[in-house]
Design brief:
Layout: H1 30-44, E1 48-54, H2 56-59, E2 69-75, H3 81-97, E3 104-110, H4 111-115, H5 118-128, E4 129-134, H6 148-155, H7 161-170, H8 175-198, H9 205-215, H10 220-231, H11 237-259
Parallel strand pairs: 2-3
Antiparallel strand pairs: 1-2, 1-4
Helix pairs in contact: 1-3, 5-6, 6-8, 7-11, 8-9, 8-10, 8-11, 9-10, 10-11
């Protein structure tokens, strides 16, 4: 027992279990999921390899009016500029049509790229994504364990992000959106830093912060604030500076020491 219950997000053989399911989608989100399925299918047709939900909606943890809807569209060939522009329009249309979601984000990938990057895109697809349409690439990917290699190849790039977030703030990007993005990446990276020692997987950001705090009590307060901001982002420049100039660089430095860094893609 670790104080958060016995569930470590693992299958009986110790591999990481797929965390979501269509059966876990709260009925309040069913209409937006149904609309996403219909519109993605109509938009891409035979070019579509598959589509997936990820994030809080398929985990059954989404909160009406406060959570966003996350989708990944996987194409048979790399997306064209026209296809990516169509996806941006889809995001806007779904977000505007359904008040139960606070934003819609759609990743666009191609099947070959995911299969060529098994410890990042592959893990994301096989363990963090829930099939919605088409073929499931998890059938062609390995099983995953909470190892140092998995940590490095998923979040060993945190060192690159503080400068990017500061540049986005300097360009005038909306602070609330930046807070959400920076907070999520930082808490998730902090969790994967300790993931091999803890021996399991969770995408729950508040739980992640608590787990990391046991290994790094000097970060506990900042992690708690950051996890709260990831779930309920606020336009707080001071909090953004705390993450970009304080917490994230400290986590990135420890990541480099413990797991090494992920080479830029």
């Amino acid at each position: 027992m670790d104080g958060d219950g016995a569930d470590r997000g693992l299958n009986p053989d110790g591999t990481i279990a797929r965390e979501g399911s269509l059966h876990r989608v709260d009925p309040v989100f069913a209409p937006v999921v149904a609309a996403a399925r219909e519109r993605v299918s109509a938009l891409f047709g035979d070019a579509l390899h598959g589509a997936y939900l990820y994030g809080s909606v398929p985990r059954g943890a989404a909160r009406p009016g406060r959570s966003d809807l996350d989708l990944m569209v996987v194409l048979r060939e790399p997306a064209t500029d026209a296809g990516r522009e169509a996806v941006r329009r889809l995001e806007t249309a779904l977000d505007g049509a359904f008040g139960q979601v606070d934003g819609v984000g759609v990743l666009v990938e191609d099947a070959a790229a995911i299969l060529a990057d098994p410890h990042d895109g592959g893990f994301f697809t096989a363990c963090l994504c829930t099939p919605l349409l088409g073929s499931d690439l998890a059938d062609r990917l390995p099983a995953y364990r909470p190892t140092s290699l998995l940590a490095r190849e998923t979040n060993g790039d945190l060192y690159l992000f503080p400068e990017r977030w500061r540049a986005a703030a300097d360009r005038g990007e909306e602070v609330r959106a930046l807070v959400r993005r920076a907070a999520r990446k930082t808490v998730r990276s902090a969790f994967t830093l300790v993931m091999p020692a803890w021996g399991g997987w969770t995408s729950d950001l508040e739980r992640s912060a608590r787990i990391v705090g046991r290994y790094h009590p000097e970060w506990a307060d900042d992690l708690r604030r950051t996890a709260a901001a990831a779930l309920d982002p606020v336009p707080d420049p001071g909090l953004l500076r705390m993450v970009t100039d304080g917490l994230a660089p400290r986590v990135a430095a420890e990541y480099r020491r413990v797991h090494g860094v992920k080479a830029p893609r």
